[in-house]
Amino acid sequence: MPYAFLTYCKEEEFHQRHWAFPLESQGSLSVEPDPASCGSCHSKQFGSWKSTLHSRALGPGFLWQLPRLGKHSTEKCTNCHSPNLETKNILLSRLGWEEKIQDPKWKPGIEENGIQCASCHLRNGKIYGPIPKNGTSERIVENSNIPHEGFIPKKEFEEAEFCKNCHQSPNTAKPVNGKFLMDTYGQWKRSEFGKNKIHCQNCHMPDRNHEWKGISDPEMVSRGIQTSLNVLASGENFEVVAELKNSGVGHLFPSYSVPKVYLEVWAETKSGKRNKISEKILGWMLDLELQTEIFDTRLSPGEATLLKTKLTRQEFQEIRKIQFVVTVDPKEYYKRMFADNWKFKDTFPENTKPWVLPYLKKALEEANSSKYEFARLEWKP
Description:
By secondary structure, this protein is α+β, with helices and mostly antiparallel strands. Helices cover 33% and strands 22% of the residues. The strands form three sheets. A five-stranded antiparallel beta sheet has the order 8-7-6-10-11. A three-stranded mixed beta sheet has the order 1-2-3. Strand 7 and strand 8 (293-296) form a beta hairpin. Helix 15 (332-343) packs antiparallel against helix 16 (353-368). The termini are far apart.
């Protein structure tokens, strides 16, 4: 038992040390920390990473808020959105809050890469990564030139705790109706997925793929969600039953308060008239200040929600088809928040407008274009 305790403490120590914010300076580097430089050898990982939300963690939706947040809050937010001290300082210097860093290896513009290779793999000038598969036989580079003299392998890279610091509110955070704003790690740990050690990486980094897909990706959602539509006879009447089940998501669906999922059942009559006969919203709806819960209809792993509608025989005989439509709005909260701020843009301090307004406009455009239809099931008599 003492040995197991010491092992557990050692694992916890690595995660706490690796993500001790603010991260320390890397010191003098012998290699370029830019992702494109890493990609010259790690082309597969670089190619996957370029299309991710991680690579856009310093996108317009984040940047427009910074002058209004101020330096202290910006530094806290960049702990996750741009973790390395050097990239953080470049951003702060752009805002006039920090002297430019002197190390020429960290070139201006590198901060725009958001969560990048160095964010997870570079600490104190050393490279860390997961233990190679099958001992040391895994081919992780495209050529034999290893400019950083290899790396330090750590099994903790494939544990859910590795993702915890940026996907879980600290215990000191203020909850909303008893719930943390970020509780994905907690939701996972309390679920069967957590108990069975099915880690974040198993779903979001299959085969060590660096895409980290989530609710913004229809294909990813389809792996964890099942839908069905049935019409059942019930005596002289009929019942339309639409179901959406969290069959394989290892946390609440959706996890955060930002996305919403709209469920609608439509009936089209023989005359061509289309009526919505049932609807429901899945999500955690909060007010714009993130202080008050309006409703929480998220689904736990294995949980399902049903939309049931009764039809008389006469109504049923008029039906040409019934459709169950599921629409995902990954940035619903952001849309509300960005739109509300855009409405009052004239009240912003004049000295902040050149920075804030272009980013805010772009952020609103991106949020408004993120909605997609996930499923459309059809039943005909």
